[in-house]
Design a protein that fits this description.
- Helix 1 runs antiparallel to helix 2.
- It contains three helices and no strands.
- 5% of the residues are buried.
- The chain is rod-shaped, with a radius of gyration of 25 Å.
- By secondary structure, the protein is mainly α.
């Protein structure tokens, strides 16, 4: 049975996961994770499994960041369209009042 992670290793894993949130920091996170992976297990099968799981985490984080950026862009476009619509309504009301 494998030994549980030490408190320092758990802290290192949390740091890796936090760094992985930012796509710009994922290289640093991967380097830190590789150090942890080497310390945790020397078994090739276990390391392969950890690599697979880490890559899935990075993929999920990148996907999440992409969808967040897309959502932000969509919201910005919606806000602009709404503002233009309000401005058009106000211009129409001024035009009607002038006549």
């Amino acid at each position: 049975m494998p030994e549980p992670l030490s408190p320092d290793q758990l802290t290192q894993l949390r740091t890796c996961l936090e760094l992985a949130h930012d796509p710009a920091q994922q290289t640093t996170a991967t380097e830190l994770f590789n150090q942890l992976r080497q310390a945790v297990s020397q078994d090739a099968a276990t390391q392969s499994l950890l690599d697979l799981l880490w890559n899935e985490i990075l993929t999920a984080r990148r996907s999440g960041a992409f969808w967040q950026q897309l959502s932000d862009a969509e919201k910005e476009m919606f806000d602009r369209v709404t503002q233009h619509s309000i401005q058009l309504q106000q211009n129409y009301l001024r035009l009607v009042q002038e006549q």
